Fold:
Amino acid sequence: MLFLEFIAGSISGAAGIAFGHPLDTVKVRLQAKSVYKGIFDCVAKTYSNEGLRGFFKGMSFPVLTTGLANSVVFGSYSNALNYISQSDYDLPSRCKQASSAQVFTAGCLSGIVQVLVCAPIDLVKVRLQGQTAAERYRGPIHCVAVILQEEGVRGLYRGGVALALRDVPCYGLYFLPYEVIRKALTETGEEPGTFAILMAGGVAGVVTWACATPMDVVKARLQMSGAGGRQYSGVLHCISVSLKEEGVRVFFKGLLLNSVRAFPVNAITFLAYESLLKILCAPGNQKPSLQSHIYHKDASSLLSQQV
Structure:
């Protein structure tokens, strides 16, 4: 089960990342630096100075490691929900009801595990995306080597507290709107269609990123502080300095881009994940899809990747 989930999560996650990475690059640069007047100015300067290639900086590393991230998130989420609701992996047990609080708690636990495993991956991605004219890092491996040499192992977790403050509650929130919308768009007793999965996944992504953006700004600034950016002593110092110098609006930098990017990326990721599981699983031994990770109040309606 976990192996199939890893395969499906790897491919679906890679598809989502490849689709949304250019917008993510613009978002990171807007959040971490104050040299851009807005989205279009950032896009224009990036294209003028670096060409199309500039929008795909740092993409190879998260694409290659997204299988790990997806399997960590959804594997830990599934196991946590099973433990909290005292259910088993067999299908009849999965029909048990789980409350919204149990779903939220399981999502938060998966967020904790994700931060511990994937914080270095996110740091390298942000560092590579933040490069403009000066090529401090030649690639992901060189980036890791430089960080270890200059900051030690601890440097790989720079911005980890902000990442945890962003991901732990937001992973808890991520699964709830998906379930509500998917169920609302599916006839009772029937499998969810393509439209239902796309809409549910897209809206879930937008809702989650709307809540995550303020701490995402803080995280990006802390991560870039070790690469020649403004130095901050921690999360609270970053928040206070940013608030004092740029006002409350600074914490919503990239919100529009996050929302625009989140809908198609999460819609594609969810749809690819569900479709791949159907292909990978034998007809007589089908693994419950992502819908079964969230337990429905109606036993006739059964549910790996985020963000």
User: Anything to note?
Assistant: Residues 4 and 176 are 24 Å apart (CA to CA). DSSP finds ten helices and no strands in the chain.
